[in-house]
Amino acid sequence: MSAMTRLQGNSLAARATRSALLTVGGFGFAQALRLASNLILTRLLFPEAFGLMALVLVWLMGLGLFSDVGITPSILHSKRGDDRDFLNTAWTMQIIRGVGLWITACLLAFPMAWVYDEPMLTQILPVAALLLLFNGFRPTRMITANRHLNLGRLTLLEAAVQVVGVSSGVILAVLTGSIWSLVAAGVIGAAAELVIYGLFLPGERNRLRWEPKAVKELFSFGKWMFLSTACGFFFLQADKLLIGKFIPLDAFGVYNIGFFLAAFPMMLGTMVTQKVLIPIYREAPPRENRANFLKLRKMRFLASAALIPMVGIFAFLGVWIVGVLYDPRYVNAGAVVVVLACAQIPAILVLTYDQAALAAGDSKRFFVLSAVRAVVMVVCLLVGLQSGGLLGALVGQGVAYLMIYPGVVWLARHMGAWDPLHDAVFALIGLVLTALALGVNWPHIMALAVQAGG
Prior knowledge:
By secondary structure, the chain is mainly alpha-helical. The protein has helices at residues 3-7, 12-44, 47-66, 71-77, 84-116, 121-128, 130-135, 141-147, 152-176, 180-200, 212-246, 249-262, 264-283, 290-325, 333-343, 345-349, 355-359, 363-414, 420-440, 442-451. α3 (47-66) packs across α12 (249-262).
């Protein structure tokens, strides 16, 4: 059977393959666009601007996660995921949440400025939070397309939104040379998303609706998702919250440049698993029979075989990449790329497991894992910062990913998704890559330790 034949048809495998390729292509385009704008903006703006904007974004993300009741995974897994009353009720709840988030962000602006000793946050946070307000009006047609693995047009529209947001940021930076160019770009991108999806995404438009039965189902699933996403905020953003507090703002900006590069494989893998695996787990749960498990094993091996070497490239070449792309102010970002890429290998091994719980509607066990992840990550980061400064925080993240592995296995085994053969094979490959990459780049890592207070 030819590769083109495998991509055709409406079978689960064909839809999954097409969706994965579209997701990878769309993500690659978005990251290339972000990299190009990043290279331009780092020459137009100062490092402190990226540090300050990172603080704004992490708090906006925190507000979003702390109020998330799991509307997207609810629609993806629910039997009523195509029902108009259910979708319109979810959309109405989403709008109410968006309005509440914007008001909350305005109220938090002064306290955040006081905590981080950055007066500009009182002005920037309320304006930047408009993107949360706009996001509340996102049409559920986006989620429906994902539910059925029909991602062709959605991917093209996402690319158009990226172009609008990024180009507006660059143009405004050229005109103003101010951090406000970064703030405005986010808001313009969110507004453009609504316009573009509203005009070009097929499907019935949402209307305000409040069906008690749908509300009950959404909240029943969402109560654990709310707690899970709150924990997920600390797990995913603890580095920015803590590092941004304990190191100077310009060094924090350098860290974020390194994070942007090192996180590329992880972000790609996360996007593919979230968009593709929930529908696959829903239609072919691995604990149902051996055939389903073997299909998922094949997909898992393919994903890891693509992502682990990608991480290895960043681990080996991080210093060189930063030296070629950025000016000397960002030189320490090279060592950040190397260490973070190595630290993320254990997390990439288990990317495909936790989506099984969401697909099965088991948000309670997903919350337990999320809570464990959050506690472990925060503790490891604090210990790392206290003992080794920025380098200690980077190492702490790697230690946290290793310590979290047993919790992920616990969840995966319950769902019939754990694959010890896969984990053993790629753990060995990852260990070899880590040892070689650290050895090659050791002088630069030691330089980071000295300059960053390690």
